[in-house]
User: Fold this.
Amino acid sequence: MALKEVRYYTVRLENKEVPEFYDFQKRMSEYNGRELAEINRYIQKIGNSYGGAHERHFKPEDAAERLPPPYHEFIESDDPNNFGLRLYCIRLSASIVILLNGDRKTALKVKDCNYCYPHFDLARKISKALTKAIVENEIELDHYNKEIIVYEDFDLTI
Assistant:
């Protein structure tokens, strides 16, 4: 999805039928419609109105990031174990972001949340593998065209 300031990508793992971000959209639309709509609006604003995918629009989560950021207005809940919907992603630059997957956070720390931790862990692993591939010139970022250039023989292993 290419917007004015940002091009968003996602990934599809070999053992999955649909890409990660599409899986997130489908699962969360079934019971988190309001929060999902907020995250989708925020993605649109980053891509069109906020001048790009700058660090301040994301919350760092180890080697990856998540949406929404801490300053984003949280939709209130009566449940003390409801910390809101989380979408894990990788911000490669102000113009290139990989949207992954997420879920509802039900524990104070992500490592203690059975719903979010697998998505967080996958985001970390993909981010580390992509960083390594960029450093080793196996892939290249074209910031002007907002593209990830993947060479023909490249295979991302996490």
Q: What stands out?
A: Strands lie at 7-9, 59-61, 64-67, 85-91, 96-104, 139-142, 147-150.
